[in-house]
Specification:
The protein has 364 residues and is of the alpha+beta class. The chain has 15 helices and twelve strands. It has a five-stranded mixed beta sheet with strand order 5-6-1-7-8. A hairpin with a 2-residue loop joins strand 5 and strand 6. It is globular. The C terminus is likely disordered.
Length: 364
């Protein structure tokens, strides 16, 4: 039986909550983020997006594009609370819910609680979000996750689009390659050099050619161009890593200052590990230099990494491998991966951990 998958994506989630709760912000260009020299836009309101402002842009650049921009400090606890309210609405229609992040999720409504068509469910969810939470969401509906996710982004904000199986290839033909889920900026550049700018051109590439260029991701691109995505909606997602990072107000090049900051990042990491009940065997250090070049170093321990005493010595060992004598450090990040649980650890080792490919895509 053909599946019915809905992807719900909240519209400018953080910014919309701020505008909902603060009437003086409504209709004005706002961003949520840290208003400082190293601040980055977390979410931009649609009024701000008209100026070309988007997520991950520096606050400094955003203000240059829009001098009247309002920067609002993030309130993650409040956003998480609203996210749970949205999730509770989903639960009234299906128990097959796969959250992708705080503001988006997949719902498998093939066999749903009320025996309703997917389009009707999506409309009712959107209506309840608007009437109960005073926010808007966009919905994409299709027979697989890939197409549902693309469809939800097609008519934002407050949009809805269904991609039927018989229309899928036609829909994908003219879709810019940058819109394909899993094609990041670096991959897009490579594809452009190959003469691939849309779905039709991607579909003309052979599986062998795509695999030669992109490795295991090549098969996914090959399938996507044909509207194929066999992945199920997974109500429980295996956590594969826990991490944190810190961008400094002033670039660091003194060893003493770097080690002090590293110590504080280790403390924050251990708190997150404890809170999430997670432990793993691999520690990864991420360094971003003043010229925005990045490097990573990893080390695997024979015992699980759970606390300061196990993590700090390895973190110091990793930072000793980094040459920052000519380039100051702008950011330091640490993460623990390779889960402690024997079953998930074995999946990791064998390269079969669910969603690994998608996390690799996000890193592009």
């Amino acid at each position: 039986m053909e599946r019915s998958i809905i992807h719900i994506d909240m519209d400018a989630f953080f910014a919309s909550i701020e505008q909902r709760d603060n009437p003086e912000l409504r209709g004005k260009p706002i961003v949520v983020g840290f208003d400082g020299p190293r601040g980055v836009v977390s979410t931009a309101s649609y009024e701000a997006r008209k100026y070309g402002i988007h997520s991950a842009m520096s606050i400094f650049k955003a203000k240059k594009l829009c001098p009247q921009l309002i920067v609002v400090a993030s309130d993650h606890d409040r956003y998480k609370s609203v996210s749970m309210q949205v999730y509770e609405i989903f639960c009234d229609f299906t128990d097959k819910i796969e959250p992708l992040s705080i503001d988006e999720a997949f719902l498998d409504v093939t066999d749903n609680i009320n025996n309703m068509p997917a389009e009707e469910i999506a409309l009712k969810i959107k209506e309840r979000i608007k009437n109960e939470l005073y926010l808007t969401a966009s919905a994409g509906i299709s027979y697989n996750k890939f197409l549902a996710k693309i469809a939800s982004d097609y008519n934002k904000p407050d949009g809805i689009l269904t991609v039927k199986a018989e229309k899928a290839l036609m829909f994908l033909e003219t879709l810019p390659i940058e819109k394909f889920w899993g094609v990041g900026p670096k991959t897009a550049v490579i594809m452009h050099k190959m003469g691939i700018f849309n779905g039709k051109q991607l579909r003309q590439c052979t599986l062998n050619h795509l695999t030669e260029v992109f490795g295991k991701s090549g098969k996914m691109y090959y399938n996507f161009a044909r509207g194929i995505d066999e992945r199920a909606v997974e109500p429980v997602r295996i956590r594969k890593s826990v991490g944190c990072e810190q961008t400094f107000l002033t670039d660091l090049n003194r060893k003493s200052a770097i080690y002090i900051e590293l110590y504080h990042i280790v403390l924050e990491l251990t708190e997150r590990l404890d809170k999430s009940k997670f432990s793993g065997y691999t520690l990864t250090l991420k360094i971003k230099f003043s010229d925005f070049m990045q490097t990573t170093r990893s080390i695997t321990s024979f015992k699980p990494l759970t606390d300061k005493n196990t993590i700090l010595p390895l973190a110091k060992k990793l930072i000793e491998q980094v040459d920052y004598s000519t380039k100051p450090i702008r950011l330091i990040g640490l993460s623990v991966s390779n889960p402690h649980n024997e079953k998930t650890r074995q999946e990791w080792v064998e390269g079969e951990l669910k969603f690994k490919e998608w996390d690799d895509f996000a890193a592009q």
